[in-house]
Please model this.
Amino acid sequence: MNRAPINLYDLTREELRMLFVRWEFPTVHAARLWSYLYLKLASNFSVEAMPELPARVRAKLNAEAMLGILPIALKTDSSDGFTRKYLLSLGDGERIETVLMRFTGRVTACISSQVGCAMGCVFCATGQMGYTRHLTPGEIVAQAVHVARALRGSAPNAAASNRDATPAAVTAHAPARLRNVVLMGMGEPLHNYEAVMQAIDILHDSNGLALAAERITLSTVGVVPGILRLADEKRALHLAVSLHAATQAGRAALVPAARKWPLDELMAACRTYSEKTGRRIFYEWTLIEGKNDSAEDARAVGALLRGLPAQVNLIPLNPTSGYDGGPSRTEAAKAFQRILADEFAVPSTVRQRRGIDIAAGCGQLASVAE
Ligand code: SAH
Ligand code: SF4
Model:
């Protein structure tokens, strides 16, 4: 057998069942294997890891299948202890970032969709790297499995609080189950549409990791055809759109992809998405001092989003080596928020800059680890 082995993380539960039909094994073994993969988080096909599989099934798996577990190349904790960042190795030696965040008892995995990114946003470490390749569904799923496994290995510690947090805080608070996933790591998820949707279906499966669709957030730079396609999907995901500027010229200077998908087309797609799905969109705005954080900028985005089902997420810039800009001051962020709220009734949050000391901005760990 010299075909490449099947990565089981690439398959939905139904596809795994069909594989067992093709192999002429009773499908009950496929169901059992699925729960070993996603409930027990097994890491190999051994008798210890999967005791109830018959020997002939185990032999077939060893011969023709594999589990695409991603080994850790580097692991770092932020000094406040609430962010743990992993650089994970892929089979071909490429590396991607996966981040485990633990704020106010909420566990979130931030996962990557590509190696590098083709969109070239000027302030983004991943954009500065350029595009290498898409991730497979299995490589996306394996990141969530990795985080779920890391959490399972942690001992709950009720005594830990935000104030006396140590690096152990990342894994120290109950509940130790992965509930939230954001596709905000390296890459543009809507540029790798099929693989991302397949991965989401696997993560969502109620007999597996069982991540609720409304706890999965996909962040896009504004790939208009992808947003329109998503609008017709049944999946109840959350959509986040990276805006960063409220004029076409201002946006094109930060986000080169805006030249291909101009602001008016993007906003039309967002309106269509919200009308068809009935869902609110998060609009992300990386706050760069002196660039897009003035009262005038706040009024421009307020006017753009007024009346839409929208929430703005303001993210102070994490500085990167390839971009000569700094984060907005807290006062500027607060003033921005006030204008959005008072003059336009647009809700917003300021994302805490946690984990900045471990380069928790998108793509930053991979770029410093070279
Ligand atoms: N490609 C997708 C998702 C990954 S980036 C997108 O662009 O939306 C996730 C978010 O992090 C985006 O809003 C992006 O603009 C933001 N981001 C990237 N680099 C950053 C940095 N250095 N500082 C702050 N936010 C950054
Ligand atoms: Fe790609 Fe998103 Fe970074 Fe832009 S911000 S380069 S779209 S990963």
